[in-house]
Structures are given as structure tokens and as C-alpha cells.
Design goal:
The structure holds 2 protein chains of 2 kinds.
Chain A: H1 8-29, H2 34-53, H3 55-61, H4 70-102, H5 108-166, H6 171-187, H7 189-210, E1 215-216, H8 217-235, E2 239-245, E3 253-254, H9 259-270, E4 278-287, E5 290-298, H10 311-324, E6 330-335, E7 338-346
Helix pairs in contact in A: 1-2, 2-4, 2-5, 3-5, 4-5, 6-7, 7-8, 8-9
Chain B: E1 7-12, H1 16-26, E2 32-38, H2 41-51, E3 55-58, H3 67-74, E4 79-84, H4 90-95, E5 100-103, H5 108-127, H6 136-143, E6 152-157, E7 160-165, E8 169-175, E9 178-183, E10 186-191, H7 194-200, E11 206-210, E12 213-216, E13 220-225, E14 231-235, E15 240-243, H8 245-254
Parallel strand pairs in B: 1-2, 1-3, 3-4, 4-5
Antiparallel strand pairs in B: 6-7, 8-9, 8-12, 9-10, 11-12, 13-14, 14-15
The chains are: A alpha+beta, B alpha/beta.
Chain lengths: ~350, ~260
């Protein structure tokens, strides 16, 4: 689509510029008969504006880059400009003839004939100017488009990252769970079946929630509790859980899988690293215009620091920052063998 | 059945169901005698010194002491089958000559195959008359290179295990085949050479100031001139250690 014809604003500015140029022509050569000169130059000037728009097609056909030779490009534009100017002069002569027919006293034809050579040169120059202008326009549009595309791409990439994140389930969690099921099948078939169902529900919910944008905090807690129930089969009495959620708070809508990575951390890096185990405390409360989720678990202060620790937390921070612009939404501290995370999420009620 | 002695097995896993399935599957093997079931590394080290099992079925991911820690502390040549959900430790496991590496969940047949390999290993060892303490310790520290610098020191005191975070160490003194680790007002004896330990510690925090001493630099209060033109390191805890000429150069480079 033509960059000027497809924007009304651009077209108006463009035509106005040509009208002003026409008036300049009047001032330059038609001062003795301003009325006739204006009647002659203004319409033909605006007409030439539209003729010059055709230069865009030539510009597009001959982009200025490493592959095209500059002399070829200049030559082509020159030929086109000469032809365009010649057509313009011919149309101008016809218009002058028309004026004389209506107002014989104007003597437009003889006036126009005097200026023809001069106007032809002006026509070539103006067309060349239009060519330069169109090249500029093409460059500006191209860079703007590239910018938009880059932005779109980065948005897409972030979305993909989030999607991958949400669907992220630690494969060792699955292997360990399957191993527990394998162990239970002969010793306690009913427990094995229960475990299968828990695991299936957990996997289904994780995948489902990953594709929604908001869920109620109650659903998020249900998912976390399912995860903990599975881990309890594995870890036995070493893993204890307590929950203290304010009924008002769990009505709130939150982005999915906010609590889940925290609970997973609490088990993997906290309770399961302790010989005697411990209690994971989960809480949620309304706090003004936000909901506060708190998670606390005991941990081994001397545990070997492996890589990947804190990654889940970091990703959660980034998620909340992009979604709410809340850069301090996640606070974590470890003090004397206790790890505590607070997450503050702006409220939305179901 | 055969007159061969039974294989004495210790099961080590911090998860109850994981111990249960091993117990169940092992019961099908008449020549296997489960002498211990341990829920963590400390129990495993204790079981090793009290009961001297022939074979460990050993989980890797456990609290405080992982499977590799346990083997380092056991310090004797015991056959090991690792049992874990993680495949990423396999190379390390075979570097220390593990008999086999079972990935959870596994089948009874897979366990039987691993036990066959263990029987073979134990038989060939019996044939070889020497039942010496195998070079596990050197091997363990070689394998541990990937965890350098050391974050904690494991010290075995008969059946007990002490986990000493390296930052609590004041200094380490060489005593013949042992090192004495001074940390938190206590002294721990560990069967290791000072050079070995030096190579494992963070060189930015620990300096060999003398043939017989490694110093935790953060515990250094001041350096004094001794009577015979020797320098002496005075520690924040009050202890005084000699500094050799080379040791002083190393210390100065670091500071």
C-alpha cells in the first residue's frame, strides 16, 4: 500500500506542501498577472502532486542497497522525471487552453508558452524531490516496522517462557512418585491406587492451570495440598503441613502456579534435606488491596548449595514483575534454620 | 541350597516406600540377608561400623549426608548398588566402582541382575586374599573434585558423624596420618593428609602457612615476630601458629 495514499493525514500534508510550492511558482513568475497565474499553477501543481506519487512505485522497484548500482537508479529516476514533467507540461497547456476558452482575456496560453521551458525544468526537479522524499518514507516505515516486530517477538518469547514454566514439573518428582506406587502395589494396594489418583489429578491440574491466566487462590492451595499429599507418601511423618487461610483471601484471583513452586522448594530444598523433617506452614490473608501468601519451612543452614536453588523464586519474581509491575512482590529470607517467603499480589475478586 | 555364606545387605534410603520395595524384592533371594535398614546417612555409617555389611543398597539424595558422603565416611571397600531417581550421578558412581546403578522405579529383574553383579564382585574379592582397605578414600577425593571448594567437612568418630561447615574451621594441624581440625572450640581427628585437604579447600579462604598448618584467613588477628626471627600467626581465638618463610609468602599474596 502506498505510504501516503493509505494515511489521510499524510496525504493532506503532502497536497498542502505542493499547493504552497505552486504559490511559490506564482510568486516567482506570475507576479504581473497573479490571478491568472494562480488559476493556472495551483490546480496543475496539485495535479502534479498526484503524478509524483507514482515515484513510489519506481522507488520500490529500485531500492537503494548494495545490490543496485547507484548510476542505474539515478538514470531511471531521471528518465521517469523527464517523462512525468513532459506529461505535466502537456496537461498544463491543455488547462491553459481551457482557461482561455472560459476567460479569453486571461491570455493563459501565451503566458504558459513563455514559461514552458522553465516549468519543465522545475517539474523535473520537483519530481526528483518527490523521489528523495519517498525513499525517506520507505526507510522510516521499514525501521518502524522492524521495531514493532522486535517488540512482538520479545513479547512472544516471554509468553513462551511463561508457558514452559507453568508446565514445568520436576521429572524426579514423577520418578519418585512412580517408585512409591511400585512399592505400595503389593504392600498396600489401596494406598497405591490413592497415590495414582493423586498423581493423575496433580498432573492434570498443573497442565490445565498452566493455560489459564488467573485462578482462585483456593484452587492454588488445593493443587499445593495435592502435591504435598503425594510427597507425604514418600517422606512419611517427616513432612508435616499446616494451613491457615483467611476465607476472604482464598476467594481472590491470582496468576496460576504462584504457590506451587514455593511449596516444591520447601519440600525439595527444605524439609527433605532434614533428617528429622519438619512442618511447612502455609498462610494467606487479605492485606488492604492485596493478598499476602506466606510460606515457612525449616531448612538445613549447612546444606550444600547446589545450582538451581532460587531459580524458581527468581522466575516467580520476574513473572509478577511483568504482570503487575510489582518488583518487590516476593520477599524471601532465611534465618536460623527457617526459610520464609512472602508474596504480595494485587487483589482481584472472583 | 548352597553352603556359601549369605550376603549381608544394608538398605539405605530416606523414603519408607523405597525401603519397603527393596525389602520385598530382596526377600525372593535366599542368599541375601538384610542386616540393616537405614533412613539416613548417619544410620548407614553407624550400621557400617557395627554390622560390617557386604553390600549397600544406597540412595543418593538424602538429608545431610548423601550417598557419596556415606561411602567416604565408611572408608572401607564395600560393594555398592546405588538406587536413585536421578540419572545424573551415574558417571560419578561408576568412577568409584559402584557395582550397579538402579534408576527408580526399577523391576525385580533389574534388581536381580544387579545382585548377580554384586555376587560376582564379592566372590572375586574373596578369591583375592587381600581384603585390604581399598583406595576408596583417594578415589573419593578425586571424584569430589567437582565439588571443590569443599563446603563442609565430614568427620567420623567411631559410629558418629560430625558435619563441620568449613567457615567454622579455625585451623587444621597435621598429625602423622591424621589431621586435627579445630572448629567451634572442638578438635576433630580425620584420617587424611594435610596436602589432600588443602587441595579441597577454597584457596581464597585457607592458606598453608606451615608444613604442618592450614589457616582460615578470616580467623587471623595479627602476625607477630617470634624470638628466632620467625613469624607467628595469632588467631582471633588466641591460638598461636608458626609461619614458615614460604607460608608467609603465600599469606602475603592472599592478603
Amino acid at each position: 500500500m502506498h505510504p501516503i495514499l493509505n494515511s489521510r493525514r499524510r496525504l493532506a500534508v503532502y497536497v498542502l506542501a505542493w499547493a504552497l510550492t505552486s504559490l511559490l511558482l506564482v510568486a516567482a513568475v506570475g507576479r504581473s498577472t497573479p490571478l491568472a497565474a494562480t488559476a493556472l499553477f495551483l490546480p496543475t501543481g496539485v495535479l502534479y502532486a498526484f503524478i509524483s506519487l507514482s515515484s513510489w512505485y519506481v522507488c520500490r522497484a529500485f531500492p537503494v542497497d548494495e545490490r543496485t548500482r547507484l548510476t542505474t537508479v539515478v538514470l531511471v529516476h531521471l528518465v521517469v522525471a523527464v517523462v512525468a514533467s513532459a506529461i505535466w507540461i502537456a496537461l498544463g497547456s491543455a488547462w491553459a487552453f481551457g482557461i482561455d476558452m472560459l476567460v479569453p482575456a486571461a491570455e493563459a496560453v501565451s503566458f504558459y508558452a513563455q514559461q514552458r521551458a522553465f516549468l519543465f525544468v522545475v517539474g523535473v526537479l520537483l519530481f526528483s524531490l518527490a523521489v528523495v522524499f519517498h525513499y525517506l518514507l520507505i526507510t522510516v516505515d521499514a525501521s518502524r516496522e522492524a521495531e514493532t516486530r522486535a517488540l512482538e517477538l520479545s513479547l512472544l518469547a516471554r509468553e513462551a517462557e511463561l508457558k514452559a514454566l507453568r508446565a514445568q514439573i520436576d521429572p524426579h518428582f514423577i520418578f519418585n512418585s512412580l517408585h512409591s506406587i511400585s512399592a505400595l502395589t503389593s504392600a498396600d494396594p489401596a494406598a497405591a491406587r490413592r497415590m495414582c489418583l493423586l498423581l493423575a489429578d496433580f498432573l492434570r491440574d498443573t497442565l490445565r492451570l498452566g493455560s489459564t491466566s488467573r485462578i482462585s487462590l483456593a484452587d492454588e492451595f488445593a493443587l499445593a495440598e495435592r502435591f504435598l499429599a503425594i510427597e507425604q507418601v514418600r517422606l512419611g511423618p517427616r513432612l508435616q503441613v499446616s494451613r491457615d487461610t483467611d476465607p476472604e483471601a482464598i476467594e481472590c484471583l491470582v496468576p496460576p502456579l504462584v504457590l506451587q513452586p514455593l511449596v516444591e522448594n520447601a519440600v525439595v530444598h527444605g524439609v527433605s534435606q532434614l533428617v528429622e523433617g519438619g512442618t511447612i506452614r502455609m498462610a494467606a490473608a487479605r492485606d488492604g488491596a492485596s493478598v499476602m501468601i506466606t510460606l515457612e519451612n525449616p531448612c538445613d543452614p549447612d546444606r550444600p548449595r547446589t545450582r538451581g536453588v532460587g531459580l524458581g523464586l527468581e522466575l516467580l519474581k520476574r513473572r509478577l514483575a511483568t504482570q503487575f509491575g510489582a518488583y518487590d512482590a516476593v520477599r524471601a529470607e532465611e534465618r536460623s534454620g527457617r526459610f520464609r517467603v512472602e508474596v504480595r499480589i494485587p487483589i482481584a475478586i472472583a | 541350597m548352597s553352603t556359601e555364606p549369605k550376603i549381608r545387605v544394608a538398605i539405605v534410603d530416606d523414603e519408607g516406600p523405597a525401603r519397603a520395595i527393596l525389602r520385598e524384592l530382596l526377600s525372593a533371594h535366599a542368599d541375601i540377608d538384610i542386616v540393616a535398614e537405614c533412613a539416613n546417612g548417619f544410620e548407614a555409617v553407624k550400621a557400617s561400623s557395627d554390622l560390617a555389611p557386604d553390600l549397600f543398597l544406597l540412595d543418593i539424595q538424602m538429608p545431610k549426608l548423601d550417598g557419596f558422603d556415606v561411602l567416604e565416611l565408611v572408608g572401607r571397600d564395600v560393594a555398592v548398588i546405588f538406587v536413585t531417581a536421578y540419572d545424573s550421578y551415574a558417571i560419578r558412581a561408576f568412577e568409584i566402582h559402584a557395582v550397579d546403578y538402579l534408576l527408580k522405579p526399577f523391576s525385580g529383574e533389574r534388581l536381580a541382575a544387579a545382585l548377580d553383579r554384586a555376587r560376582e564382585r564379592l566372590r572375586s574379592r574373596e578369591a583375592a586374599t587381600t581384603r585390604e582397605a581399598a583406595p576408596t578414600r583417594e578415589l573419593m577425593s578425586a571424584v569430589r573434585q567437582d565439588r571443590v571448594p569443599l563446603q563442609r567437612l565430614l568427620v567420623r568418630d567411631r559410629a558418629d558423624v560430625h558435619v563441620v561447615p568449613v567457615e567454622t574451621i579455625e585451623y587444621i594441624e597435621s598429625q602423622d596420618d591424621y589431621v586435627a581440625v579445630k572448629a567451634g572450640g572442638r578438635s576433630y581427628l580425620k584420617e587424611q593428609t594435610l596436602g589432600e585437604l588443602e587441595s579441597l579447600l577454597d584457596p581464597r579462604a585457607f592458606v598453608r602457612i606451615h608444613r604442618r598448618f592450614i589457616l582460615n584467613v578470616s580467623r587471623l588477628a595479627k602476625i607477630e615476630m617470634g624470638i628466632t626471627d620467625n613469624r607467628v600467626a595469632v588467631l582471633t581465638g588466641g591460638a598461636e601458629l608458626p609461619i614458615s618463610r614460604a607460608g608467609y609468602a603465600r599469606l602475603r599474596d592472599l592478603l
